[in-house]
UniProtKB/TrEMBL annotation:
<comment type="similarity">
    <text>Belongs to the Gfo/Idh/MocA family.</text>
</comment>
<dbReference type="InterPro" id="IPR050463">
    <property type="entry name" value="Gfo/Idh/MocA_oxidrdct_glycsds"/>
</dbReference>
<feature type="domain" description="Gfo/Idh/MocA-like oxidoreductase N-terminal">
    <location>
        <begin position="12"/>
        <end position="113"/>
    </location>
</feature>
<dbReference type="InterPro" id="IPR055170">
    <property type="entry name" value="GFO_IDH_MocA-like_dom"/>
</dbReference>
<dbReference type="Pfam" id="PF22725">
    <property type="entry name" value="GFO_IDH_MocA_C3"/>
</dbReference>
<dbReference type="InterPro" id="IPR000683">
    <property type="entry name" value="Gfo/Idh/MocA-like_OxRdtase_N"/>
</dbReference>
<feature type="domain" description="GFO/IDH/MocA-like oxidoreductase">
    <location>
        <begin position="124"/>
        <end position="260"/>
    </location>
</feature>
<dbReference type="GO" id="GO:0000166">
    <property type="term" value="F:nucleotide binding"/>
</dbReference>
<keyword id="KW-0560">Oxidoreductase</keyword>
<dbReference type="GO" id="GO:0016491">
    <property type="term" value="F:oxidoreductase activity"/>
</dbReference>
<protein>
    <recommendedName>
        <fullName>Gfo/Idh/MocA-like oxidoreductase N-terminal domain-containing protein</fullName>
    </recommendedName>
</protein>
<dbReference type="InterPro" id="IPR036291">
    <property type="entry name" value="NAD(P)-bd_dom_sf"/>
</dbReference>
<dbReference type="Pfam" id="PF01408">
    <property type="entry name" value="GFO_IDH_MocA"/>
</dbReference>
């Protein structure tokens, strides 16, 4: 689904981008994808990464493998002199994400990270609403609560890889929670003074945590859409395997003169704006993107081509910040995050 729907088509649909080559170790699969999924007949399929990286005219590489493989693959990409666009989470822990980021910095190459929700129309609309004072001149509190899986894919196996910390770095907080944390960082500024905990409350047959709670404050972030009040707080809770029957997913941003609510894990969910009394003032709706990663991939393409600088682009630095927050919450559960 990631390559066939979310991201893959965007690489040949974005202006200024062509999908020149694909690689998968499973015999025949990359050639099949190149022949059946990519228009034009010029895309080449490879089974060996070293041969793939030698493909003529290759400028940048998208890494969409499991997080536990990212470091080794990214080292090869950087050694080959290619820019990289890597799926989130970038590494299984902050230390791994930092190492990947440094590999590209040392090589003088761009590292882009796939926090695609930054580029959603609804996220950009929220930034505009905040900057125009829709909820006041300061953010005073941000809260998030998820009950349910948050739309995580490929969860039918006895032990899905997303719940195998050796492959993923932890439980669903790594795959689902990181999106929301990056979006809070992008909209409101970096999280500091983070405190958190993780537990396995409902899943005795799964080794990973299924409940995460954290609190934080905001640091200085020049990229924030609206400044935060001194002492503004953040509280987030993920209950991935709750026995509650009704899933719940809500990001709530409170300002000095109102508030804003939106689903955290939706590409097109409505954004609702309330006044100080809690009365609904606006409800904005959005179309579902055909390819949810395409908007971000277009900004990455433009950046690679030197066409424009955009504050939407997600780099290695913000991915490292997000991973540090997650590590703080998971540290006690795993007895360290190295």
């Amino acid at each position: 689904d990631v390559c066939q729907k979310k991201s893959g088509p965007a690489f040949y649909k974005c202006e200024g981008s062509d999908l020149a080559a694909v690689m998968r170790r499973t015999p025949g699969k990359a050639k099949e994808y190149a022949a059946t999924q990519v228009p034009g007949g010029t895309c080449v399929g490879y089974e060996d990464i070293d041969e793939f990286l030698k493909h003529p005219g290759l400028d940048a590489v998208y890494v969409s493998t499991r997080p536990g493989t990212h470091l080794d693959i990214c080292k090869k990409v950087a050694k080959a002199g290619k820019a990289c666009y890597v799926e989130k989470p970038v590494g299984r822990c902050a230390e791994e994400a930092e190492e990947i980021n440094k590999v590209f910095q040392d090589a003088g190459l761009k590292l882009y990270t796939a926090y695609i929700s930054r580029a959603y129309d609804r996220t950009q609309t929220v930034r505009t609403l905040l900057s125009e004072g829709a909820i006041g001149d300061k953010i005073t509190n941000v809260s998030y609560k998820l009950v349910g899986s948050g739309g995580a894919r490929d969860m039918t196996e006895d032990l899905p890889w997303r719940l195998d910390a050796e492959q993923s770095g932890g439980g669903l907080i790594m795959d689902v929670g990181c999106h929301v944390l990056d979006r809070i960082d992008y909209i409101c500024g970096p999280l500091v003074n983070v405190k958190g905990r993780a537990e396995n409350k409902h899943s005795p047959l799964v080794p990973a945590e299924d409940f995460v709670h954290l609190t934080a404050e905001f640091g200085e972030g020049t990229w924030a859409a609206l400044s935060t009040d001194k002492g503004a707080t953040v509280e987030c809770t993920w209950d991935f395997a709750s026995e509650e029957q009704t899933p719940f997913d809500e990001l709530h941003i409170v300002g000095s003169k109102g508030s804003l609510k939106m689903a955290g894990m939706s590409p097109n969910g409505a954004v609702k704006v309330y006044n100080e009394k809690g009365e609904l003032q606006q409800e904005l709706t959005f179309d579902m993107p055909e390819h949810t990663a395409q908007a971000l991939i277009q900004t990455v393409t433009n950046d690679l081509r030197g066409m424009e600088k955009s504050n939407i682009v997600s780099y290695g630095d913000n991915a490292v910040r997000t991973q540090r927050v997650i590590d703080t919450a998971l540290n006690s559960y795993y007895g360290g995050r190295e």
